[in-house]
Specification:
Elements: E1 2-6, H1 10-19, E2 24-26, H2 29-35, H3 39-50, E3 54-58, H4 64-78, E4 82-87, H5 90-101, E5 105-111, H6 114-122, E6 127-130, H7 132-137, H8 142-155, E7 161-164, H9 170-179, E8 183-186, H10 188-193, H11 198-215
Parallel strand pairs: 1-2, 1-8, 2-3, 3-4, 4-5, 5-6, 6-7, 7-8
Helix pairs in contact: 1-3, 4-5, 6-8, 8-9
The structure holds SN-glycerol-3-phosphate.
SN-glycerol-3-phosphate (G3P) is lined by residues 6, 28, 109, 131, 133-134, 165-166.
């Protein structure tokens, strides 16, 4: 499972990239609004930080013609390994077929049902992004929906993978990691939460103290 950062906060992205193995960054209009900067300025800075890793950027037009125009512009401005996020609605499916036909990477977004993902895959999308926690909040099972989409893609031998999004806790990500989905995108807080536990910090601290008791304060294996 690839792991991406769902954020447009350049400082937060830089911090996560320094410490964790990351395959790219996903954004959406709400995430860009939170960053509060002109969209292409923020996106180009993110692109410079992540190099050749994936960058997913959403189109906002309501009709297929506008989505296609935006998709071409996003791909041309941001270059290699850019994915254009297109909502999985009727106009979106029309746009996905055109963009995929031009060789532009498409990520189908706003996926709440497995059959939306199936249609996106048939339209040539490379990824489909089910909103795990939002589905949970509707009273359904977001993790199960993402697993069903993974199975649909595998069993029908479609060239599309799950890019699960909208996580609110580590367990949702863990369940999908165990299932071997294509990718998950999570906010910096969720990614840091994978290793945030007093028991982990305390275990590491105890090893350091024991070593210093043995070898002297401030000593390490490199300083002996
Ligand atoms: O782009 C989809 C994803 O970021 C939505 O997450 O937290 O707004 O449900 P959230």
């Amino acid at each position: 499972m690839k792991l991406l950062i769902d954020s447009a906060d350049v400082d937060a992205i830089r911090h996560i990239l320094e410490f964790y193995p990351i395959d790219g960054v996903t954004t959406n209009p709400t995430i860009l609004k939170k960053a509060g900067r002109p969209p292409f300025a923020a996106l180009k800075e993110i692109k410079a930080l992540i190099g050749g890793a994936q960058l997913h950027v959403q189109a906002v037009s309501r009709d297929a013609a506008g989505m296609v125009e935006e998709g071409r512009s996003i791909a041309a401005s941001l270059g290699e390994n850019t994915f254009v996020k297109i909502p999985s609605v009727p106009e979106g499916f029309k746009a996905m077929r055109i963009l995929a036909g031009e060789g532009i990477n498409v990520t189908a977004t706003a996926v709440y049902t497995p059959m939306q993902a199936y249609l996106a895959g048939m339209c040539g999308a490379r990824y489909a992004a089910p909103y795990v926690n939002r589905i949970d909040n509707m009273g359904y099972d977001g993790v199960q929906a993402a697993k069903d989409i993974h199975d649909i893609f595998e069993k029908n031998r479609m060239g599309c993978q799950v890019l699960a999004a909208s996580f609110k806790n580590s367990r949702q990500v863990l369940e999908l990691c165990k299932y071997g989905i294509g990718a998950a995108t999570a906010g910096p807080d969720i990614i840091e939460g994978f290793v945030k536990d007093p028991a982990i910090a305390s275990a590491v601290e105890a090893f350091i103290r024991d070593f210093e008791d043995l070898a002297g304060p401030g000593q390490t294996m490199a300083s002996l």
